[in-house]
Amino acid sequence: MVCPFCHLESQDRQRVVLENEHCLFLQEPQEVLIGSGMIIPREHRETVFDLTEEEWAATFSLLKRAKALLDEVYEPDGYNVGWNNGSVAGQEVFHVHLHVIPRYADEPLAGKGIRYWIKQPMNKPGR
Amino acid sequence: MVCPFCHLESQDRQRVVLENEHCLFLQEPQEVLIGSGMIIPREHRETVFDLTEEEWAATFSLLKRAKALLDEVYEPDGYNVGWNNGSVAGQEVFHVHLHVIPRYADEPLAGKGIRYWIKQPMNKPGR
């Protein structure tokens, strides 16, 4: 299967908003997670654990630039920043992407973090 | 208020499992998110955006060591890795901590990632 993040020209909705030597910050139109985007390496890597040291450093540099931009445009009240690694963890495109998610005080789910649902007792593994 | 992650000696349940020059990997007993832990900088920083370059690099080094350890001990099927930044995003301790969350195929919520709930239409900000 062709990797959609190796072939951004095939993606109608993804727009490259910021970039540096090793990484891109992408955004697509959002109905709910207003302003959210993704940082991806230019090279194909599957998960965060596969990034090179240089790509890891470039991710941080771009993350701080993305935050500055999002702060100015959307004025969020906080951010979730993270990776899903593996389909069991919710990864759908197997070219690593760091989700950068502005959060807002006027969201119904304001105050709920990335672990809130999965840490509920009902999610205990069946072992 | 005294920062609990600056004063780990005050924390009965948190155990330092791995460490390097700038960071610690902590675990505490878990009922649901089996094997999950956190990577924190030794110095007090509030959010991921406040880390130094050296702390960011040390975070990656420790993340890969933590994954190797967790793979061996718990044999998970994937990982969520991420930060809550700001109380609106679910941050409860204001000393930055990277959640490292093994995920398992036999969890009821297997396949659901860190955005699954917050991206639902019901969570649209009220602006």
Characterization of the model:
Chain A is α+β, with helices and mostly antiparallel strands and 127 residues long. Chain A is built from 1 helix and 5 strands, in the order βββαββ. The first copy, chain A, has a 5-stranded antiparallel β-sheet, with helices on one face. The mean pLDDT of chain A is 97. At the A-B interface, α1, β4 and β5 of A face α1, β4 and β5 of B. β4 (78-85) of chain A pairs antiparallel with β4 (78-85) of chain B, so a sheet runs across the interface.
Which helices and strands, and how do they pair?
Two copies of one chain form a homodimer.
Chain A (H helix, E strand, L loop, with lengths): L14 E5 L3 E5 L9 E5 L11 H22 L3 E8 L12 E6 L24
Antiparallel strand pairs in A: 1-2, 2-3, 3-5, 4-5
Described by its quaternary structure, the protein is homodimer
General shape of chain A? globular
Taking the sheet with the most strands of chain A, its summary is: 5 strands, antiparallel
Terminal CA distance of chain A reads: 34 Å
In DSSP terms (H or I, runs of 4 or more residues), the helix count of chain A works out at 1
Q: How many strand elements of chain A?
A: 5
Rg on CA atoms of chain A, Å: 15 Å
* Average pLDDT of chain A: 97
Measured by DSSP, the beta-strand proportion of chain A falls in 15-25%
What order do the SSEs of chain A take from the amino end to the carboxyl end, as H and E? EEEHEE
**Helix content, binned percent of chain A:** 10-25%
Read across the widest sheet of chain A, the strand sequence of neighbours is 1-2-3-5-4
Pair with the biggest interface: A-B, 60 and 60 residues
Structural class of chain A: alpha+beta
Pick out the low-confidence regions of chain A.
none
